């Protein structure tokens, strides 16, 4: 149920800056998240994701610039019950049942979600009478989700929401989240599971060294990563001259296979066929991981596109590192 009547963005950052000593954790962020969007926030450790979320929730204030949530300050939006958050930190409360905890949190909001509905959406319908301090790590994650839903917020913010969940539980969580979003609610989540962003986000923001370096759909970011990956078994064919093949922009040798990043896969494959290097040949389009690693491999340039639908920054050339 909609609780606000204005039609502006759900979230707005205007030149927001937050520093900690010499570190600019958020460096002039300009972004808008529209109502009803599901947005993923991606970045390496230390990129500024947690600080961005803290500014959004009113847990910290920008040194300069402005942050607004439904046209209000973050503190006002949180106080009005418009925002729910599922954070990584937090210890279980002893001798309290799951239902008692969710009911208590719901009672602090003006228009809470029915407790049974919050428990069901979080996959806790069978655990209401269970003590919170007796739950597993994955079950505690579901409790945090139920607590975030308790106030019936229009915006929910999730910080690594599936970190302690197994594959089946992760799937169930995202089924619940999509059902929540279909009500017209707004979702912002950070994750290290790139496939979650690929599958569940309408839009992806990539943050690097405190700056938004890409903003667009998963497909847009993949296209910005450029070209395809052509791989094949070396099988005695050697690696000499691979870098000079038509279309090839990067070469990586993985054990007994070569992987070629190319912006003209047809020309690259023809050239490989002429060399007789077609054993185990495979051609795959760029992935979100390719785009993420390229965008965060080195410092972004000064001209950074911002805003919904803006094409992502062309990927930089550099050594890839693990997420």
Structure, described:
The two termini are 38 Å apart. This protein has helices spanning 49-57, 74-79, 98-107, 115-121, 137-149, 167-181, 194-200, 218-225, 265-275, 288-295; strands at residues 11-20, 23-33, 38-42, 64-69, 83-86, 155-159, 186-190, 203-208, 211-216, 228-233, 248-254, 257-262, 282-285. Strand 8 and strand 9 (211-216) form a beta hairpin. 29% of the residues lie in helices and 25% in strands. Helix 3 (98-107) crosses helix 4 and helix 8 (218-225) crosses helix 10 (288-295). The chain is α/β, with parallel strands linked by helices and 323 residues long. The chain has 2 domains: 11-216, P-loop containing nucleotide triphosphate hydrolases (Rossmann fold, 3-Layer(aba) Sandwich), CATH 3.40.50.300; 226-288, Alpha-Beta Plaits, CATH 3.30.70. It has a 6-stranded mixed sheet with strand order 5-6-7-3-8-9, sandwiched between helices. Strands 11-12-10-13 form a 4-stranded antiparallel sheet, covered by helices on one side.
């Amino acid at each position: 149920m909609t609780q606000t009547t204005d039609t502006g963005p759900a979230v707005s950052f205007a030149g927001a800056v937050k520093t900690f000593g010499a570190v600019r954790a958020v460096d002039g962020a300009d972004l808008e998240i529209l109502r009803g969007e599901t947005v993923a926030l991606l970045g390496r450790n230390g990129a500024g994701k947690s600080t961005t979320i803290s500014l959004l929730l009113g847990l910290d204030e920008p040194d300069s610039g402005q942050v607004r949530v439904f046209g209000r300050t973050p503190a006002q939006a949180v106080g009005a019950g418009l925002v729910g958050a599922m954070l990584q930190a937090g210890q279980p409360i002893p001798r309290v049942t799951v239902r008692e905890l969710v009911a208590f949190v719901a009672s602090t909001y003006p228009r809470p979600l029915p407790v049974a509905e919050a428990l069901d959406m979080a996959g806790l319908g069978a655990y209401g009478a269970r003590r919170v301090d007796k739950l597993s790590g994955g079950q505690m994650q579901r409790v945090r989700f139920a607590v975030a839903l308790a106030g019936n917020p229009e915006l929910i913010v999730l910080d690594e929401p599936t970190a302690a969940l197994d594959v089946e539980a992760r799937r169930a969580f995202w089924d619940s989240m999509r059902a929540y979003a279909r009500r017209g609610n707004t979702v912002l989540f950070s994750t290290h599971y790139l496939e979650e962003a690929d599958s569940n986000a309408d839009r992806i923001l990539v943050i690097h060294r405190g700056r938004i370096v890409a903003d667009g759909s998963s497909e847009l970011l993949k296209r910005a990563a450029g070209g395809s990956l052509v791989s094949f078994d070396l099988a005695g064919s050697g690696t000499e001259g691979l870098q000079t093949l038509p279309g090839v922009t990067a070469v990586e040798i993985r054990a007994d296979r070569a992987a070629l990043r190319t912006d003209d896969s047809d020309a690259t494959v023809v050239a490989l066929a002429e060399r007789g290097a077609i054993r185990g040949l495979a051609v795959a389009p760029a992935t979100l991981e390719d785009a993420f690693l390229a965008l965060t491999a080195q410092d972004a340039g000064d001209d950074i596109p911002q805003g919904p639908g803006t094409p992502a920054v062309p990927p930089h050339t550099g050594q890839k590192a693990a997420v």
